[in-house]
Amino acid sequence: MPYTAINLGCRPWNLSLTSVIILALSNMLLTFLLLQSETCVPEIIPRKMVEVSAVTEWNLGNLVKQQQEQLPECITQDYQPMSPDANSLRLDIKLGRWDARRIFRTFDSVLVGSKFTELSQTYRVCLATQSSVEKLHSLVQVALHWTGPMSVALYAAGDEEFEVLQRYLVYLRRCYESIRERVIFSLAVPRMRPPKKQPRVFELPDIIDCAKPEATLNELASHISSEQTNWRIRNVYPQNHMRNLARKNCQTDYVFLTDVDIVPSFNLSVALDEFLRSDNCDKCAYVIPTYELDTRMRFPQNKTELIRLARKGLARPFHQKVFIHNQFATNFTRWLQDVSPTHKYHENVKTGKVYVSHDVTNFEFLYEPFYVAKDIAPSHDERFMGYGYTRNTQVYEMYVTGYQFKVLSPVFTGHWGLQTRKSRPAWRERQNSANRKQFETFKKEVFARYMRDPLKMMKNAN
User: Fold this and answer.
1) What Cα–Cα distance (Å) separates residue 72 from each residue in 47, 211, 228, 451?
2) Which domain holds residue 12?
3) pTM of the model
4) Axis crossing angle, helix 158-175 with helix 213-221, rounded to the nearest 10
5) DSSP string computed for 85-141
6) Strands 254-257 and 125-132
7) Number of domains in the chain
8) Which residues of 106-140 are buried (b: 16+ CB within 10 A; e: fewer)?
9) What is the pLDDT of residues 202-236, one digit of tens each?
10) Are 276 and 316 in the same domain?
């Protein structure tokens, strides 16, 4: 036995050196194969993973960490080869389309996802949403949940915000395949403070933390001057301009109009698409119930899990404590019934198949549902800016024209945070009061246009 060991050279130090050399060569070969392999998909969150995993801004870091352990080379390099100007906005800042009062200029389709056109031909519904610069990080989770086409209207005032917006769009498109492929962006700027510098190419460092979209945006925004920030506080955000802009850049028959911090339930785009293929109602608005979610929880996988959270006080109907009339007509009590195993549509809850749970029978003026409808509904009146009377006036006009509101199940949307009145800033009420005055003229115009007054609003006309 000793003779054999000497002839083979199996000394401990020789064996260790040989093992190190073999291991190093193996690692080099595997690294080369990973970099060259077509199976190294440039996507942080694959679609199949989105459908089974909860991804929120509170657990996104853990999920990306798991992906890094599985595909280290895919995560650390640029996820998809792109030309230097692939993320630059396509527009001339001195041009643009004016609104009716020449207060804002808008630019359509300034940045188009690589698969947006294809998806718009495949799906029947497009998610339309809008955002100011400081809230744009919320788009990450929305895009991870929604697998169909998305139209996002962006707002930027002045060169400082415009630069932050451009830099952050580079970050979003480099980090998230869902945004790079599915989203079309449009832009609105104010006449009082338009950007003066033309769009340009911005590069980010080779290593960027894709697990922290909010922190990354906050870091970029921290360089905005206090003078610019104060200007934004004094000037209202044109919500209805933005909603119209996002909606009209969708290319599908149906539009699901939301706010950027409203997160769709898993698989909502696919389930909705299947439901709408058998729809033949021109004046139907399909309501997607919305719940507030405790930020300590993960996003519920399905309706059953959502109701479980609600029973523990960790979820509740949107605005229930702040302004109950906002969603009250949805009738959440009735919407909960199919969770029971004895309900005739309980199987839909188990399978996720969308159906009409019930009709809205107690419509009221202050109702503000998030809904899906054909893109022939009345536009949002752009006289209403900021907060208050922005969404409910459009829904009211739909009701006057004869729209039926139908609540869908088992799909839903979520909004992070259990809201209270104390958490609402005072400037919201000031904007609400200003819009209340605009409504007096608006309701008279709606009556004159349709000669209908189903809610007897004209009795209260001044």
Assistant:
1) 19, 14, 40, 64
2) 1-37
3) 0.82
4) 160
5) TTTS----TT--EE-TTSSEEEEEEEEE-TTHHHHHHH-SEEEEEEEEGGGGGGHHH
6) parallel
7) 3
8) bbbebbebbebeebbeebbbbbbbbbbbebbbbbb
9) 888 777 899 999 999 999 999 999 999 999 988 99
10) yes
